[in-house]
Amino acid sequence: MMAIRSVCAVAVGGFALVCAGTAAGQDTPRWSDIDCAQSRLSTPPGLQCKSTQNYAGGDSSTGTAGGTFRRWLASGQMNGASVFYYLAEATSLGASMMEGSSLQKDIRSEMKDGNMIHEFSPLGNRGGADYMTFTSGAGNSCVGIRRYGPSQGEGYKWILYGVSCDPRGRPITDAQIDGFIAGASYRGS
Fold this sequence. Notes:
- Mean pLDDT is 82; it is low at 1-25.
- By secondary structure, the chain is an alpha+beta fold.
- The strands form 3 sheets. Strands 1, 3, 4, 5, 6, 7, 8, 9 and 12 form a 9-stranded antiparallel β-sheet that branches. The chain has a two-stranded antiparallel sheet with strand order 2-13. It has a two-stranded antiparallel ribbon with strand order 10-11.
- It has one domain.
- The chain has 3 helices and 13 strands; from the N terminus they run αββββββαββββββαβ.
């Protein structure tokens, strides 16, 4: 449980910092707890969810400069693994989400022990998502994913990210990777 708290705190904090780099005059995203049934993230039951308000602006690393955006987060325990899913969504026409960096760099920035992560696998694609396996600084077997929504503007309508880490000493299997990728989708139009 402590691992997921660290993963979630770092994910929310890291993504909030990315958003905080927006130009003056733009809204600052504020995170609030929500009922998961109200989320654009469709995830397995039992996770806790958060979202930002619909905010104006963008950020230089993942979104276009104009339009409106919203962020969604679901986290908790699934089958003994600590997991989080994160969705960045462009909510107005013409606004879009952009790929900010490599999946490996995104994983490092999302994890509390990002500088200690090692043994990254080559980038792969399964079930419509890019993925990489890696070992956390604490020795957990993990997988990180990124899935793109439909094209919109100069990028995508949404981008979904996720990380799942099994307890130390338990290797992550292909079936678990497939289940984690299939475990979240975009709920919306």
